[in-house]
DNA sequence: AATAGAGTCAACCGCATTACA
DNA sequence: TTGTAATGCGGTTGACTCTAT
């Protein structure tokens, strides 16, 4: 026996909401509050599923919801929070006033993810690693040399060695045999680390970036093959629990 | 001007979690 | 303590819009 359906699909309306439906929903929430979604449609005179009403309210009608383009600052924050929380959209949304989890999820899947993949040079990946790492780099020149040496390598194990060279905590790296709870421990260790370490690491990379003019123009993916390669690296780093 | 493909986003679906009798 | 209902959430879909040809 399967789960009891939340509503009778034959009797409820589906698809885009009309202005009149929005008005009825808003009035009903104003009167009864944000609760009893199951019975709300009946009380409001709406031929809608309760879940649909709840979604419409929290994603669109609720006062204070920001509409329009997501700013660069917000985007940076989303990337940072996604590094920290993963696909926990509601958690991420809690840190962006006026934005909904659904909106952030959509933006991530349509815009940010594409940017990361298209702009996913190995050095950019290093930038992503350092955002989530509490470690510092011993020397900027040292890092540049190591990145340059390995830039053309197709051997992933060499990059793993580089991560060790960069003083990444062993706990940060999850081997294929480890469980996600191990990764969670590493996560909590990272997030509890002093911000100054992150700042130092960030500064080091930015200095290299500026001084040596290694930017998008050099490493930007120009072909589908490049994108495939970048995606491969991106996935590999994610798999090893480094850039998450 | 027509059209195909890409991008965007609101809404749906079903599983997970929480509340409560 | 347990079973059921209600709610929350993330993944996915599909309609609509935009852009390139």
Automatic annotation (TrEMBL):
The scientific name of the source species is Epimedium sagittatum
Localisation: Nucleus
- MF term (GO), any: DNA binding
Question: GO terms for CC?
Answer: nucleus
Q: This chain belongs to which protein, by name?
A: R2R3-MYB transcription factor MYB5
Keyword Repeat annotated? yes
Record carries keyword Nucleus: yes
List residues of the Myb-like domain. Answer: 9-61, 62-112
The protein's matches in Pfam families, at most eight in alphabetical order, are given as: Myb_DNA-binding
Quick one: where is this thing mainly located? nucleus
């Amino acid at each position: 026996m399967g789960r009891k359906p939340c509503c009778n699909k034959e009797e409820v309306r589906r698809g885009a909401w009309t202005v009149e439906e929005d008005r009825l929903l808003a009035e009903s929430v104003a009167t009864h509050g944000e609760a009893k979604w199951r019975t709300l449609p009946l009380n409001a005179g709406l031929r809608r599923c309760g879940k649909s009403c709840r979604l419409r309210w929290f994603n669109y009608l609720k006062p204070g919801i920001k509409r329009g383009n997501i700013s660069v600052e917000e985007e940076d924050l989303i990337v940072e929070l996604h590094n920290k929380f993963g696909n926990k959209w509601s958690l991420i949304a809690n840190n962006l006033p006026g934005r909904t989890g659904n909106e952030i999820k959509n933006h991530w899947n349509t815009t940010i993810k594409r940017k990361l993949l298209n702009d996913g040079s190995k050095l950019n990946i290093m930038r992503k690693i350092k955002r989530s790492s509490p470690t510092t780099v011993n020397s900027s020149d040292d890092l540049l040399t190591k990145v340059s040496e390995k830039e053309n390598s197709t051997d992933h194990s060499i990059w793993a060695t580089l991560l060790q060279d960069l003083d990444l905590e062993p706990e940060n790296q999850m081997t294929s045999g480890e469980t996600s709870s191990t990764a969670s421990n590493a996560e909590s260790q990272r997030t509890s680390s002093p911000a100054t370490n992150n700042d130092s690491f960030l500064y080091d990379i930015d200095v290299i970036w500026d001084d040596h003019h290694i930017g998008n123009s050099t490493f930007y993916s120009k072909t589908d093959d490049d994108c495939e390669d970048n995606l491969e690296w991106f996935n590999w780093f994610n798999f090893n629990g480094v850039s998450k």
